[in-house]
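[Solved] Which block belongs to which protein?

Original post:
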Amino acid sequence: MDAYRGTEGTRPYAGAGWYYAEYRQRVSTEFILLLAARLGWTRDERVLDFGAGPGQLALLVAPVVAEVVAVEPEPDMLAEGQRRARALGANNVTFIAATSDELGALRASLGRFRTALMGQSFHWMLEKDRVLRDLGAMIDETGGSVAFVSPRRVSAPSSLEAAEQTVHEILERYLADVPLGPHPNGRHDPFEAILERSAFPRVERIERVYTVPLRPAIESLVGSEYTISHVLTRLGRRREAFEREVRAALGSLDAIGEIWLTLRDEALIGLR
């Protein structure tokens, strides 16, 4: 394979749209209803999902508001989000291709919103203070908000963690000689501090902790790795060999059976 060179401007999620939509952990519908109640959404509201990926948040929010605008720069993510919106009949979700650098220029055409949501996207935006300034001009003066929404896994049985570790170790061997792609994580102040100096300085958190059943499959363990930035691009033509080795190492996961995970949905909220 040609060496993948991690340089600014690369597409970290090229080819990952379906895997991200299928296997990346998402928050629960119950948490969206909790968030909607806290932020005072009604059926008349417009919500912006910024850095939307394949629309996981947008499609959960769509049933409780009038319109969701999902902004995302990666074509594969946009295509997958549009496909899933059509399948669900979510006609009130609009997908727009744009980066955070283009937000200011889009303000007039996008209109105003009650809330701007971001899933796992804000850390990719290099000019975070400028992004929140741009959003400040687009969010309602009264009752407007920004919310960073994240799903977390609190605990899982050791049998699942061992299988995940095996997959990850095999993947790391396949990627050992391929440069990392660019990633801005860690180059910023805490999100709370950024919100406190923005137009959304009243900061609070809400969360929901719950348990869910799961029957692990090799496809989901591998697919979860493919939701990580740059992985598919770095693997290139080694992907089939990687998957064969994973299957040989793990065999069947039937012995694990049904297990229970403890999950936590959380939102860091900035209010006007």
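(Second protein starts here: sequence line, then its structure tokens.)
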Amino acid sequence: MDAAERGQLFVFAENFLDHHIERLRTIALGIADQPAQFPVNGINVLNEEAYQGAQTRNVAVAFAEEKSTDPTESTYRTTLASLNQPISELQIATDAAEFYRAVRISGSSDGQEWSYWGSGVVYRYQQRGTSRELLRLEFPESTGNKFLRVEVINGDDQALANLHLALSAVPRTLTFKQAAGQQYRLLYGNEKAATPQYDLGHYFDSGPPKPVYRVLALGPEEGTANYRDPRPFTERHPELLWSALGAAILLIGLTAIKALRSTGAPAARV
């Protein structure tokens, strides 16, 4: 059996397992090789499942170019609408016909201290009559930052002509069982809320909405009139705590000065 026949045997066995593995409990696989024995040290059976990547949606942001301290880089910055915005993809558009650039992404909560988010390369060029292009950069989803900075490493090349940047995020959906005659409100904004644990998450059939599921739209946003901040009084009014601390330091200082004056001994006379 030559290499081509062995390759066909492998493909047949793989297709056979894909279609019948769910109904079989025992699998026997024979390899025929007439000229000589075909040594087999071991056989591994793998079960792989492919999932379609999550669809992303554009996030409304506007990038502004900043003056970079490094002449070989172009720097762009934007402000996110929320600290909890889960950004996970950067897309670019440019008029440059051919390029190959490294890109670095950083995030910050105050615009001063920056932390690394992700990096990669974007490119567009012709090679042996084939057009090769990659204009998006995926990076681990991150939250907790108000500002985002993108640095394009130009090296000794000119900056990309008419460059536009866009961000994308994986959309979130909320699924629940509806009871007849009930009204539902979506409450959000509690930064200390923990991830909930419900039975539904273990047996619900996830994926794209099916015809049996009703897709609802949110109504107008309203402020919670009876909301009570659960934080302690001192955390809700930190200025009072600092004022009390300052007054205590002042009183301690005045008391110490008064004590030193009252216990001072007269100078000795010769």
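Accepted answer:
You had them paired correctly. Confirming on the second one: The first helix runs from residue 3 to 20.
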